[in-house]
Amino acid sequence: MRHLMSPLDFDTKELDELFDLARDIEVNPEKYAHACDGKILATCFYEPSTRTRLSFESAMTRLGGRVIGFSDANSSSAAKGESVSDTIRVISCYADICAMRHPKEGAPMVAADKSLIPVINAGDGGHQHPTQTLTDLLTIRNLKGRLDHFTIGLCGDLKFGRTVHSLIHALVRYEGIRFLFISPEELRVPDYITDMLREKNIPFEEVIRLEDVMPELDLLYMTRVQKERFFNEEDYVRLKDFYILTPAKMELAKKDMLVLHPLPRVNEISVEVDEDPRAAYFKQAQYGVYVRMALILTLLGLTNQ
Ligand code: CP
Fold this sequence. Notes:
The protein is of the alpha/beta class. Helix content is 38%, strand content 15%. α2 crosses α11 and α5 (130-144) packs across α11. The two termini are 20 Å apart.
């Protein structure tokens, strides 16, 4: 039995197979419409979500399976004090696979340890968000045609943004990646990540002004300031609009640069940018369904369709 806790749980060859499968699902959806007949996915979300939970639900439904779950810790027995370990033991009796989001870092790992079914980390605190990373990598591969040799700017809340942490860890395994970290001082990427990049001799720079590096970027990964992880409202209010991507800033970028964003967006990309053909974030959300379908099939051992 296999879980997905981190984007590093799959090596690059396995990722290629997963992305090829996602591509085949996109092109030939009818082939997979009954692949999960009789299977049940449990979505255990202790933290709010639109894309991750609903794309998992859409993925399992499109595979012919069914979905059970909760979308709020307060509507589960967590509100009565039940541990994640006990919950997953019970969910293992009801479902064949589980996607879990939790505000505590490492909680899905605790669940995986006690689980009798595959557990997918659907986001744990400010730590990791591996299925968002699968979505991001599939988007880059599909729209750029490769996962190597590019300069990527990651902009916004690089301290608390778990999608950023997961994506950096996944990208360091590909050749020729250069990182530009664009953030205010207070929201810099954590030291453990910059230490890892130095150890691996992977080029990176940290800058404050987006405009200064815009012409260099092949990819711009925008992120929202993570209000829910701030200790005080005053700091959040001061930093929340630090970056706003506008059509004027897009003028500085390469003609084939892509703008990605895990979403939800708050104010960091102006809605006028949505019309720019380089804006790929809604396409990215669509790819999230295909890659989660491929992931469910892979973890359930149902890839021979
Ligand atoms: N990208 C993402 O994780 O979105 P949700 O929080 O809506 O699931």
